[in-house]
Amino acid sequence: MKIFVARLPGTPVFDPAGDQIGRVRDVVVGLRIGLRPNVHGLVVEVQPRRRVFLPITRVRRIEPGAVVFTGRLNMRRFEQRATETLVIGEMLDLSVEHEGEPMTVYDVAMDEIKPSHWEISQVALYKGRRRDPRIVEWEEVSGFDKLQKDQGAAGLISAFESLRAADMASALHELPSKRRIEIARALNDVRLADVLEELPPDDQISILGTLEPERAADVLEEMGPDDAADLLHDLPEEQAAKLLALMEPGEAAPVRRLLTYPETSAGGVMTNEPVILPPTATVAEALAHIRQQDLTPAVAAQVYVARPPTETPTGTYLGVSHFQRLLREPPSTLLGSVIDPSIDPIRPDFTLREVTRYLANYNLVAAPVVDELGRLVGAVTVDDVLDHILPEDWREGTDDHDDRTA
């Protein structure tokens, strides 16, 4: 049985009872001098964003769309050993040689030699920019043992293409620093912005610092203003000011406004791009706006009603209409008549503790933020609050080293 490894990322992993416990993120192998690499196992991501090790001896079968294992899965966090190599993270895009000719690794294949024993058997190679790979035997290729200054990123990005931004961020976070930066720099501005929003602050700063200032400013423009402001808050003041100056004025303006608020206040964590409509808009228009695919569920859960202008800071704030209420009303109904009068707005200077209590008291996923002039300046969502009240290392989990014997 032969499987090309680049097709595995994102494949669901099922336990013996048929329950999905995670998804494949990588394949762990051991390189051997003069021999084909042994496959040690799979790196599986389980919730919440924890990577664990699944020994290949526990894998019952691998089929399109599913990996099924037997026995018990050790939930300790995976840690790569010095003698191990990650196929997706480290082998793809390597520059190697085949018959004296320089080539690039596009994919590798693993074969089940006997039950529960897998080896890397073949390598898919390409030259230059062509994407019609040549498949050759492992023994015909040299160069996998070389440390390379600039490995490239096309193959790994292709393998991760279907991943959500949060999953790709998790995958990048687990890569060696050099590889993580190579991949991040090769992403287009929109994709990199989406991924940066999901990364821990240290990774954000590290990646942004490797970009040319003009490109870093372009990426910040593609991020949500609240996420861009959070990142700029973490940068040295001089660097943040330089990047703001390089951003387009229209993109920088909302970020500058957010930076005027304390980082741990309602104004500091809010988004200034909620769904805002005038009272003369109809329910049909409101539903069309909250159907936008790029809105998070928390932002799409309500429509804020304000006098023009309807961009923050708005005209006089009037109230909020919840999407459940909108679904019950005739499409031609005006928003001004379906405002919830029981929801009072919060002030930008509310602390995170006050915002958390407010959301909990009213069972809300978002709250309007209104300034002293009665203008809507943004909305705080529950995910904004969680990002700031969870421990900084919440993405890491709290486990010790991985234990391959459990």
UniProtKB/TrEMBL annotation:
<dbReference type="InterPro" id="IPR000644">
    <property type="entry name" value="CBS_dom"/>
</dbReference>
<dbReference type="InterPro" id="IPR038076">
    <property type="entry name" value="MgtE_N_sf"/>
</dbReference>
<keyword id="KW-0966">Cell projection</keyword>
<dbReference type="InterPro" id="IPR046342">
    <property type="entry name" value="CBS_dom_sf"/>
</dbReference>
<dbReference type="Pfam" id="PF03448">
    <property type="entry name" value="MgtE_N"/>
</dbReference>
<protein>
    <submittedName>
        <fullName>Flagellar motility protein MotE (MotC chaperone)/sporulation protein YlmC with PRC-barrel domain</fullName>
    </submittedName>
</protein>
<dbReference type="GO" id="GO:0016020">
    <property type="term" value="C:membrane"/>
</dbReference>
<dbReference type="InterPro" id="IPR006668">
    <property type="entry name" value="Mg_transptr_MgtE_intracell_dom"/>
</dbReference>
<keyword id="KW-0282">Flagellum</keyword>
<keyword id="KW-0129">CBS domain</keyword>
<dbReference type="Pfam" id="PF00571">
    <property type="entry name" value="CBS"/>
</dbReference>
<dbReference type="GO" id="GO:0015095">
    <property type="term" value="F:magnesium ion transmembrane transporter activity"/>
</dbReference>
<dbReference type="InterPro" id="IPR006669">
    <property type="entry name" value="MgtE_transporter"/>
</dbReference>
<dbReference type="Pfam" id="PF26205">
    <property type="entry name" value="SH3_actinomycetes"/>
</dbReference>
<dbReference type="InterPro" id="IPR058838">
    <property type="entry name" value="SH3_actinomycetes"/>
</dbReference>
<keyword id="KW-0969">Cilium</keyword>
<dbReference type="InterPro" id="IPR011033">
    <property type="entry name" value="PRC_barrel-like_sf"/>
</dbReference>
<feature type="domain" description="CBS">
    <location>
        <begin position="339"/>
        <end position="396"/>
    </location>
</feature>
